[in-house]
Amino acid sequence: MAKSTKSKSSAKPDLKAFFEYIQDISQEKGLSRDEVLEVVRSSLITAYQKKYGQLANIEVILDREKPEISVILRRTVSETVVDPGQQVSLEEARKENPSIQMDEVLEIKEYPFEFSRIGATNVRQVLLQRLKELERELIYNEFKEKEGDLINGYFLRWRDRDIIYVDLGRAEGILPRREQIPNEKFRPGDRVKAIIKTVELRREKSREPGPFITLSRSSGDFVKKLFEMEIPEIYDGIVEIMDIARHAGYRTKILVRSLRYDVDPVGACVGIKGVRIQSIVRELGNERIDIVHYSENPDELIANALSPARLTEVRVEPRTMEALVVVPDDSYSLAIGTNGQNVKLAAQLTAYKLLVKSQTQFSQEMSSPEARRQLEEIFKPQEPTGDDDDEEFTRLAEIPGLTSRIISILEEAGISTVEELIEMEPEELEKIPGIGKSTAKQILRILADTVEFEEI
């Protein structure tokens, strides 16, 4: 196959400096040298395709050792030219190579540095555009993997006093008004801690280039990540966060449970004199945080969720997920909370619709036969079961000293009354999962100190 090469070179460009520039831009953009060279290659191909057509047979040579940067265009000599990008007439081919014959391939080598001014401008534009696209894709992939993670940045600027722009290093994050904690104030250079909520490469109807990294400080997930960072037991999986209900800037309730019988989940989160939780409270702008101990017993769960209010009575209807809560008159405002925050967050946390009444309200309503009938229809009291209705049993919760954790373990083992507990041998008690020898001795000591045994 005969070949002819035409070299269009008048002066040798400083190719060594060009390859050094490629190395510098690779480090600046955080890209590999091969990735940048591939962008250069594709940019040159695009520029030459504009000149010779999309189907043109183009090869780009990027040789750092020689050094050389060239573009080779190959076209077959044909009697009839259908595609000028791939074919050339014998007459035109012989202008480049007088000895070329029909069906042979004509090679034309050009040096892009000596490309026409317009052509060189196109190469530069395509190169810069491709580099920006590649950089955006790399940043998108980097932050997409971090969705849901906690991140630190620095306040940059406000936009329309509504959106905060945050410097994240290689990219900027946006903190919309809905994702901010109310009444927060930032100044240039202030540290901003948030979670990465969403990462989008591009947005419809947006003229701004991506990626778009949306941050959040108002979500429950942000509070959860702060607890995972500050509380070792949560980070290690010993204490589990079951759910979070939050009114950003005002109050948060966190439902927790311990996966180890010897760890108090509430105490682990609060710390001695509240030292552990204080750093989280400061990060949230002194937002109030309630740590709620999880319980499978709905009555106990609702009572814990409405803390610090004291409860007189709880009537639960599992079928409709409703609960009537009666509190002492002096605890009514605590149960409701400012603007109803306490009861609203407790309802979110427990998934029950809570109807809270003071003792006086409840007594007045129950004095009406019609109101009493309606309440009794909604909240039917559970009828006691058993063959002997006259037989009385003592609930485990009535024994002072038995913690809710121990009671839960015993109830899971099928022991729900003090009478059943008394009948157990120490060895049987020790075999219950979560009890052990030391806890068994503690239970027996409590029984010995609080229960009076009658000889029959």
CATH architecture of the largest domain: 2-Layer Sandwich
Integer average pLDDT: 82
Oligomer designation: single chain
Helicity range of the residues? Answer: 25-40%
Strand content: 15-25%
Number of strands: 16
Detail the poorly predicted runs: 5-11, 115-119, 384-391
Radius of gyration: 38 Å
Distance between the termini: 117 Å
Q: Could you tell me the CATH topology label of the largest domain.
A: N Utilization Substance Protein A, Chain:P, domain 4
Structural class: alpha/beta
Describe the structure.
- The chain is an alpha/beta fold and 456 residues long.
- The chain has five domains: 3-140, N Utilization Substance Protein A, Chain:P, domain 4; 146-218, OB fold (Dihydrolipoamide Acetyltransferase, E2P) (Beta Barrel), CATH 2.40.50; 228-292, 2-Layer Sandwich (GMP Synthetase, Chain A, domain 3), CATH 3.30.300.20; 295-383, GMP Synthetase, Chain A, domain 3; 396-450, DNA polymerase, domain 1, CATH 1.10.150.
- It has helices at residues 15-29, 33-52, 90-96, 117-144, 220-230, 232-235, 265-270, 275-283, 298-305, 332-336, 341-350, 359-366, 369-378, 404-412, 418-422, 426-430, 436-450, and strands spanning 3-8, 57-63, 68-77, 87-88, 105-110, 150-159, 163-167, 172-175, 191-200, 212-216, 239-247, 251-258, 288-293, 313-317, 322-327, 353-358.
- Strands 1, 2, 3, 4 and 5 form a five-stranded mixed beta sheet that branches. A five-stranded mixed barrel has the order 6-7-8-10-9. It has a three-stranded mixed beta sheet with strand order 11-12-13, sandwiched between helices.
- β14 and β15 form a beta hairpin.
- It starts with a strand and ends in a 6-residue tail after the last helix.
- The model is unreliable at 5-11, 115-119 and 384-391 (pLDDT under 50).
